[in-house]
Design brief:
Number of strands: 22
Largest sheet: 8 strands, mixed
Helix content: 25-40%
Radius of gyration: 23 Å
C-alpha cells in the first residue's frame, strides 16, 4: 500500500485527532497513522477527563497559553461534536498556612494567565458547599471555569468528524522508518506499508522522542510517568459537587476526587516515573497511596465502592513545557510532543494552532464543505420512555438490552461497529457496555456474539484491544 498526502499525523490520541479534524477545515489531503486498532489507545483513554482552568501552568509557557485558550473554546467544540461537558468548577484545598500561601500564588498566577473568576474561599464557604470534605481543610482556591468531560469519547468524536470531512485514519500502522524523497517524507510501517506526505506531524505521545529522532529532527527525551486510579460505583448521592484537588507539588496536580460525566466517582492519580513506556500495570503500593491521600480530603471514601482500577502513562518531556514547533533543520516536520497535563484541555487549541500553521505553509484554501457537527449514538439510558418507544419502532434492536449495568442496547453496539469499533475495548469506550458494576461479567459473551456476527469473524479472532489480546484461544463448541 502506498498513498500520497499533503499532511500526515502520527498518533491518534486526542491531540492527533484534534489536529486532524482542524486540518479538514482546509482543502488538504490528510491522514493519521496509528499503530493500534483504534483511537485513544494511549494516554487519551486513561486520564482524569479534567478541563483545567489554567491557574497551574507557569506564565509565559506553551502550557499556560494553550490551557487558557483551550478552556475558552472547549464547551463550543463539545457542543459541535455532541460530547458531554460539565463546567462544575474546582477547589484546590489547603490544610495549613503554608498551603494557603500556595493558593495565593496560584491565584496570582492564574490572573496573570488570564483565568477568570478565581477566588480563595474560607473554611465556612468550603463546608457549606462541600459538606463531605475533611474538617481539617482551612481554605480553598475556587476556579468556576474548570470542568469535566470524557477524554476517549472526545477523541472518538474528533475521529468520526474527521472521517466525515474527508480524512483517512490508517490503523495498525506502526512507524518504523522515516526518510526523505524530494519534498516528501516517506513513512514506513513495520508491516511494509508506506505513505508519502509533504508535511509530517509527530503526535506519538510517549514515543514522540523516538519518532523525532527517526526523522532526523530535534533530539529530546520523553519520560514515562504512570498514574493509578480508582473508579467508584455510581453513588445515590455524589459525595462532591466539584473537582477537588490538593495543593500541587513538583510531581503534578496531586490526588484528586471528582465526579465523572458518566456518574461515577474518580480518584487519583499518583505519579511515578517508570522504565517502560507501555507499562500500564497497577500496583498495590501505588493504589494504597492514592486511596490514603484521597481520604485526607474525603474521609468517608470506602474501597467497598470500587468497581475497577486502571493506570495511564503521561508523556513528560525533559523541557518541562509542551514541545510544539516545526523543526529548525527538518523542514515541514512538526513536533507536538510532551503533551502532559493540561493536554486534554489544550488539545482543541493546539489543533487550531497547528492547522493554521500548516495551512499557511501550504497556502491551503478553506474547505467550504467542512461540517463541524457530529451526532453521538442514541443512548437507551439517556432517553425518556416515550423516546425509547419511538426508537424501538424505528430500530427494534434498541429494545434488546445487552449490558444491564449501563442499559446498553444491541442497537448501540451495532452502531458503534458501523462507526469503526472492532475490539471489545472499542465497543466499551463507545457504548459503556462492560463499564458498569459487574465490569462485563454479564454482557461480555453477548458483545462477542454481536462483534462476531457484524464483522463476520470467528469469536477466536476477537481481541480486547487488538494485537494479540485474544479473549478465546481455541474453539471448543459446536456451531
Amino acid at each position: 500500500m502506498s498513498r500520497i498526502y499533503d499532511v500526515a499525523v502520527i498518533g491518534a490520541g486526542v491531540i492527533g485527532m484534534s489536529i486532524l479534524r482542524e486540518l479538514t477545515r482546509y482543502r488538504l489531503k490528510v491522514c493519521s497513522l496509528e499503530k493500534m486498532e483504534d483511537v485513544a489507545e494511549g494516554a487519551s483513554k486513561a486520564n482524569s477527563g479534567i478541563v483545567h482552568a489554567g491557574y497551574d501552568p507557569i506564565e509565559g509557557t506553551k502550557k499556560a497559553r494553550f490551557n487558557v485558550e483551550g478552556n475558552n473554546i472547549f464547551a463550543d467544540v463539545c457542543n459541535e461534536l455532541d460530547v458531554e461537558y460539565k463546567m462544575i468548577g474546582s477547589l484546590v484545598v489547603a490544610f495549613d498556612d503554608h498551603e494557603i500561601n500556595v493558593l495565593e500564588e496560584l491565584l496570582q498566577r492564574g490572573k496573570r494567565n488570564g483565568v477568570k473568576g478565581l477566588e480563595i474561599k474560607n473554611q465556612e464557604w468550603v463546608f457549606a458547599n462541600e459538606p463531605n470534605l475533611s474538617r481539617n481543610i482551612k481554605a480553598a482556591l475556587f476556579a468556576p471555569y474548570s470542568g469535566i468531560t470524557n477524554p476517549y469519547k472526545l477523541t472518538i468524536a474528533l475521529f468520526e468528524n474527521s472521517i466525515q470531512n474527508g480524512a483517512d485514519v490508517i490503523f495498525g500502522f506502526e512507524v518504523c522508518k522515516i526518510e526523505k524523497d524530494g519534498d516528501y517524507f516517506v513513512v514506513h510501517s513495520a508491516d511494509s506499508r508506506f505513505v508519502k506526505t509533504r508535511v509530517l506531524i509527530n503526535c506519538a505521545g510517549v514515543h514522540a522522542d523516538e519518532i523525532s529522532k527517526m526523522a532526523g529532527a530535534r533530539l529530546f527525551k520523553i519520560y514515562p510517568r504512570r498514574g493509578q486510579y480508582y473508579i467508584l460505583d455510581k453513588p445515590e448521592k455524589m459525595p462532591v459537587a466539584r473537582l477537588i484537588f490538593q495543593v500541587p507539588t513538583e510531581k503534578g496536580k496531586g490526588i484528586l476526587v471528582t465526579p465523572t460525566v458518566d456518574g461515577n466517582v474518580l480518584v487519583g492519580p499518583n505519579s511515578e516515573y517508570i522504565d517502560s513506556k507501555d507499562d500500564t500495570a497497577t500496583t498495590q503500593e501505588g493504589l494504597n497511596e492514592v486511596f490514603e491521600k484521597a481520604r485526607k480530603v474525603l474521609p468517608n471514601l470506602s474501597k467497598r465502592d470500587v468497581i475497577t482500577i486502571f493506570s495511564g502513562i503521561r508523556a513528560t518531556p525533559d523541557t518541562h513545557d509542551f514541545i510544539i514547533e516545526e523543526d529548525e533543520d527538518v523542514k515541514n516536520f512538526i513536533n507536538v510532543a510532551g503533551i502532559e497535563s493540561p493536554g486534554l484541555t489544550s488539545s482543541v487549541a493546539i489543533g487550531r494552532y497547528i492547522a493554521e500553521l500548516v495551512s499557511d505553509k501550504l497556502n491551503a484554501k478553506r474547505n467550504l464543505n467542512f461540517n463541524p457537527y457530529r451526532e453521538d449514538i442514541k443512548r437507551f439510558s439517556e432517553l425518556s420512555d416515550e423516546e425509547r418507544e419511538e426508537m424501538i419502532k424505528l430500530h427494534p434492536t434498541f429494545g434488546n438490552i445487552v449490558c444491564r449495568c449501563e442499559l446498553v442496547s444491541e442497537y448501540e453496539i451495532v452502531e458503534a461497529i458501523k462507526r469503526g469499533a472492532k475490539t471489545l475495548d472499542s465497543i466499551k469506550r463507545r457504548t459503556r457496555a462492560g463499564m458498569g458494576r459487574c465490569q462485563g461479567g454479564f454482557c461480555l459473551p453477548r458483545v462477542m456474539d454481536i462483534l462476531s456476527r457484524e464483522l463476520k469473524i470467528d469469536k477466536t479472532q476477537i481481541t480486547k484491544f487488538g494485537k494479540n489480546s485474544y479473549i478465546l484461544t481455541e474453539k471448543r463448541w459446536e456451531d
